[in-house]
C-alpha cells in the first residue's frame, strides 16, 4: 500500500496505510505491529483492497475511517465537516493562553462560530474546566457530528449547539468573554489549485471565503462586538493573504490591540484582538 500510495503522490503514504489496516483489522495502529503475524481473512483483504481504491481516487482517509485526530483527541468526521488541521490547534492554544491571564469572575463564556466537527469547542471544553460554551454552525448535519463528538468526550453538558449563520446565531445567547472561529477563508480563485483530496471532497461551504477570503471572516470580525463583553477576546483563523483586511475589519469593529499571530508552522494565520475596555492586550 505504501509504495502504491507513494507512486500516486498520496500524502503520508505510510500513515494512510496504517490507518486503513487498523480500520479493517480493528484496534489501533500500534496493534498492527504488536500482532504482526495475525493473518487477515479473505473478507478483510477484499475490504482493504476496496479502501485502497478510494484512497487512490484521493478520498481523504479520515472520511474513509470516519475519524481524525486534533490535539491528541479523536473526532468523528464525515463529508459534512472539514477535516481538523494541525494549524488550527494553535487557535485552541491561544484560547488556553488567554484563559491563564483572564481576570473575569466565575466561569468564562466562550463561543465557537462555525464549529464543524466541534474540535475547537470540545478541545477548549476539555482544556478549560468549567467553561460554558456555545457552538454554532449553519449546517445541521455538521452540528449533528459535533454533538456526537461532544458526547464521545463527555462534555455535552457544557456545550450548547445552535444552528445559524455567523454572529446572528449568537445574538440570543448573551455575551461572551472569548469568541473563536475558523470560518471559510480560501479565496475562490484558489479553489482549483487545492489538492484533490481537499478540492473534490471537503465541503465548499466550509472552505470558500469569497474573492479575497474575507466574505465570511470580515463580517464576523466587524460584528463580533455585538456579542462580546467589554474587554472580550476575539480569535479568528484567516488566510495569510488577508492579514491587512483582517486588521482593518477589527478596527472597524471597535477592537484594540489587534495583531496577527502565527500557527505552529510559522504562517500568519490568526487575528487576535481585544474589544475596547480591556485592561490588558
Describe the protein's architecture and organization.
The structure is a single chain. By secondary structure, the chain is an alpha/beta fold. It folds into two domains: 2-57, no CATH class; 80-275, Vaccinia Virus protein VP39 (Rossmann fold). The protein is 36% helix and 19% strand. It has helices spanning 2-7, 13-25, 29-34, 42-56, 61-65, 89-101, 119-127, 140-152, 196-199, 217-223, 243-252; strands at residues 68-70, 73-75, 109-113, 132-137, 159-163, 176-181, 228-237, 255-262, 268-275. The strands form two sheets. Strands 5-4-3-6-7-9-8 form a seven-stranded mixed beta sheet, sandwiched between helices. A two-stranded antiparallel ribbon has the order 1-2. The longest helix is centred in the N-terminal third of the chain and has 15 residues, at 42-56. The N and C termini lie far apart (50 Å). The model has no long low-confidence stretch (mean pLDDT 94).
CATH superfamily membership of the largest domain: Vaccinia Virus protein VP39
Assign the CATH class of the largest domain.
Answer: Alpha Beta
Strand fraction band?
15-25%
Distance between the termini: 50 Å
Q: What keywords describe this structure?
A:
alpha/beta; 281 residues; globular; seven-stranded mixed β-sheet; Rossmann fold; 36% helix
Task: Summarize, please.
The chain is of the alpha/beta class and 281 residues long. 36% of the residues lie in helices and 19% in strands.
How is the secondary structure organized here?
Blueprint: H1 2-7, H2 13-25, H3 29-34, H4 42-56, H5 61-65, E1 68-70, E2 73-75, H6 89-101, E3 109-113, H7 119-127, E4 132-137, H8 140-152, E5 159-163, E6 176-181, H9 196-199, H10 217-223, E7 228-237, H11 243-252, E8 255-262, E9 268-275
Parallel strand pairs: 3-4, 3-6, 4-5, 6-7
Antiparallel strand pairs: 1-2, 7-9, 8-9
Amino acid at each position: 500500500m505504501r509504495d502504491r500510495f507513494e507512486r500516486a503522490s498520496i500524502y503520508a503514504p505510510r500513515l494512510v496505510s496504517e490507518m486503513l489496516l487498523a480500520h479493517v483489522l480493528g484496534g489501533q495502529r500500534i496493534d498492527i505491529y504488536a500482532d504482526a503475524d495475525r493473518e487477515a481473512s479473505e473478507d478483510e483483504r477484499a475490504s482493504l483492497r476496496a479502501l485502497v481504491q478510494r484512497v487512490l481516487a484521493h478520498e481523504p482517509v479520515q472520511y474513509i475511517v470516519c475519524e481524525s485526530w486534533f490535539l491528541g483527541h479523536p473526532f468523528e468526521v464525515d463529508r459534512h465537516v472539514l477535516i481538523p488541521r494541525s494549524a488550527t490547534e494553535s487557535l485552541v492554544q491561544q484560547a488556553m493562553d488567554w484563559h491563564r491571564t483572564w481576570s473575569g469572575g466565575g466561569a468564562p463564556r466562550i463561543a465557537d462560530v462555525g464549529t464543524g466537527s466541534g474540535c475547537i469547542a470540545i478541545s477548549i471544553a476539555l482544556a478549560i474546566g468549567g467553561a460554558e460554551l456555545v457552538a454554532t454552525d449553519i449546517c445541521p448535519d455538521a452540528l449533528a457530528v459535533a454533538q456526537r463528538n461532544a458526547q464521545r468526550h463527555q462534555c455535552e453538558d457544557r456545550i450548547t449547539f445552535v444552528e445559524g449563520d455567523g454572529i446572528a446565531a449568537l445574538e440570543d445567547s448573551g455575551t461572551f468573554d472569548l469568541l473563536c472561529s475558523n470560518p471559510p477563508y480560501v479565496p475562490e480563485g484558489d479553489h482549483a489549485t487545492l489538492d484533490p483530496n481537499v478540492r473534490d471532497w471537503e465541503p465548499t461551504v466550509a472552505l470558500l471565503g469569497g474573492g479575497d477570503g474575507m466574505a465570511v471572516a470580515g463580517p464576523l470580525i466587524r460584528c463580533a462586538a455585538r456579542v462580546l463583553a467589554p474587554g472580550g477576546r476575539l480569535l479568528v483563523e484567516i488566510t495569510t493573504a488577508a492579514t491587512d483586511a483582517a486588521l482593518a475589519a477589527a478596527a472597524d469593529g471597535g477592537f484594540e490591540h489587534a495583531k496577527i499571530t502565527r500557527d505552529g508552522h510559522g504562517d500568519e494565520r490568526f487575528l487576535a484582538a481585544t474589544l475596547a475596555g480591556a485592561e490588558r492586550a
